[in-house]
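B., you asked whether I could sanity-check this one before it goes into the benchmark set. Here's the sequence:
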Amino acid sequence: MTSLLQTLAPGFLVAAPSLRDPNFDHSVVLMCVHNDDGAMGLVINRPAPVTMGDILSQMQIEHARDGKVDLEQAAMVGGPVALDSGLLLYQVPPGTASREDELTVADELRLCPNQQLLREIGLGQAPGPYHIFLGHAGWGPGQLESEISQGAWIPASLVLSLVFETPVDERWEAALANEGLSPAQVGTFRPSN
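And here's what the prediction gave me:
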């Protein structure tokens, strides 16, 4: 395994301004998995036109009506793959044991497709701060490495506050700033078609 593979998950990929794919324009991708078989991540700065309340209602999941659940919290479009599938990303206290059906992205960050966990969140029993994602980003073997070498992505360190505290529309610039970069330094030129 190369050092590049060892550093991308957990971490972020910040889209270079030249990346023209509308699925990833000015996106920040939380890398969840990256190995010889490919990579999987979640775009953390693309709100979906669907709220937590919409999802709970559509799935007929009871929810607390005492303000413990932010029914207006927007879901996120995690990427163009499997848009009809939901994934819960949530923060847990350090040292928390993993659930059987979750992926440990980082010590304090977990990913889970479990509807039972969605029910718990609906009842106001979230394990910590969370986002629900519709779809994800995926790359085949070697594909992401090629895109990085072509300058489409800027690898960046994982900063949990960027995922749960930074306003969505500020995450791209904040991810660059965490690496000591500004948008001007990575370029704002967009080639014409």
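One thing to flag: The first strand starts at residue 11 and ends at 15. Otherwise nothing jumped out at me.
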